[in-house]
Amino acid sequence: MNPFARMLTATKTVGAIILTIGIATFLYGMIVNDYVFISGIGVGAVMGAVFIFIISMFLIAAEEMLTKSKK
Known about the structure:
The protein has 71 residues and is mainly alpha-helical. It has helices at 3-33, 36-70. The two termini are 20 Å apart.
C-alpha cells in the first residue's frame, strides 16, 4: 500500500473516532444533562477532529507534491 494512502487511512480513522466522541459528548451535554460545560467539551472535540483532518490532509498533499517534484 502507498505510504500516503496509509497516512490518509490513519488520519480518517483518528478523525472519525474523535468526531464520534465529540458528537456523543455534545449530545450528552445538551439532551441528557443540560450541562453547558460538557457541551463545550463536545464542541471542542468536534472542532479538534476537523482541525486534525484538515491539517493532516494539507501535510499529506504537500509531502506528495514534494516527492513528485523531486522525480
